[in-house]
Amino acid sequence: MTTIADLPEIDFGAADYLAAPLPTLAGFAERFKLGRSSRGIEIFDYDLCRDTILNRAFGTGHPRLMNVLGLPEGPALNYKRRSISFHNRGETRRRLRVPLTTLMGPEGSERFRTDIRGVVRKTFAEIATDRPVDLIHDLCDRIPSRVYCYWINAPMEDADFVSRTSHIVQQVHTRNPETTAEVTQGFENLLEYVDERIVLARQNPGDDLLSDLIRATDAGHLSPDELRNWVVKLAEANTDNSSHQIAIAVIELASRPEIWAALGADPSLVPQALREVMRYHPRSLSTSRETLEDVVMDGVPIPKGEAIFPNIGAAHWNPNYFPDPAKFDIHRPDKPAHLNFGGGIFSCIGRFAVTIEIEEVIAHMVVHFPNLKITRSAFSHSPMFTSVTELKAVLNG
Ligand code: HEM
């Protein structure tokens, strides 16, 4: 019988992974369904990843993550413990998600589209078009943090604080205890900020997401503490992931001039092009779970309490599911679906809204900047994420 110790080991610090992470993952996916790494069990097979993401035998990996980081007792850890991420499968998790999945589901998010388009236009109007600009700072960070400000009816000037703090608190996923002090302070700043915004929104209710969440609270669907934790959670999960995925989309699409031109000629192709971006180069290279009971996966016994990582990058580059995975093809069938947003009762709450954000950014760019030239770009890849560390471009290249 195969045991965990017999599984092939992937070293995320190895030169081949760092130089070419997705082809390296594809190599694993072609040969193995499961592997192991220093963080736990890695799943390389698409169907097995999907099943693990959805299956009731697997729960949240978040509490273990906080142990790895050693977050000290205090407001940050209290928030984490009570936020959605710490709630395992069950009635509380389901109840907590209902107001959000209603307000931010496909239809709920669609009602943000016109205002998101306004944020995109305003942001581009402030960017120089005739010389190299830093698109991470001027565009990718600003769009999601300004959209967050719009959701909570805050002044757009707060967007810099929101994006900076989101980047800081998302460092939890580095699993590096050296970030703990900064992360703790980041959460404390965010908690204070959100408390102030809720007081202001209660004084001046409007037609925004925060006011809708306050109304859901007053109707008894959330407690005041749960409301606050959600508003913090939205900031935590929003800007960092979205900024990187916008940057990835700009790089993957604009560096292929024939595709950029095809999208400019027919922007209705943008949604399918973005699906391929999220398959080919997902922001989420993995998500995490923990076994809630003893399980057998692909014939391998895995005990309760084991850290499990559905390896989304490997699944997306598995040739058994995505033929010729290294080919960037915006005309791929939409099934199998990409796993960039996880799934089931843990799925990304912002997936519809952020897809609209990225669609609006790209649709604007392909029409207004057909000659965009990327002058510098760089990626970095951790086991968890694709990050864009540099993106300079001339919009009117
Ligand atoms: C492109 C940008 C984004 C990516 C790639 C992304 C990806 C993910 C992934 C992989 C998960 C875990 C899903 C699972 O394990 O099944 C997740 C969870 C979550 N995301 Fe996103 N996300 C993005 C943007 C956003 C935005 C814009 C928001 C909110 C405005 C958001 C809110 C959340 C929340 C609240 C959760 C936790 C859900 C739960 O535990 O029930 N995300 N996201």
How would you sum up this structure, described in words?
The chain is of the alpha+beta class. The chain has a single domain (4-394), classed as Orthogonal Bundle (Cytochrome p450), CATH 1.10.630. The protein has 18 helices and ten strands. The strands form three sheets. It has a five-stranded mixed beta sheet. Strands 4-10-9 form a three-stranded antiparallel beta sheet. Strands 6-7 form a two-stranded antiparallel sheet. A hairpin with a 2-residue loop joins strand 1 (34-37) and strand 2. The mean pLDDT is 95. The chain binds protoporphyrin IX containing FE. Protoporphyrin IX containing FE (HEM) binds next to helix 14 and helix 18.
Structural class: alpha+beta
| Small ligands present | protoporphyrin IX containing FE
- What's the end-to-end separation, in Å? 59 Å
Biggest β-sheet: strands ordered side by side in the sheet: 1-2-8-5-3
> Largest sheet at a glance?
5 strands, mixed
| Unreliable residue stretches | none
- Examine the coordinates and then state which fold CATH places here, giving the name of the CATH topology: Cytochrome p450
Give the fraction of residues assigned to helices.
40-55%
Shape: globular
Q: How much β-strand is present in the residues?
A: 5-15%
**How many discrete structural domains?**
1
Oligomeric state as shown: single chain
Tell me the CATH architecture.
Answer: Orthogonal Bundle
Number of strands: 10
By CATH's scheme, which homologous superfamily applies? Cytochrome P450
CATH hierarchy, class: Mainly Alpha
Q: What's the mean pLDDT score?
A: 95
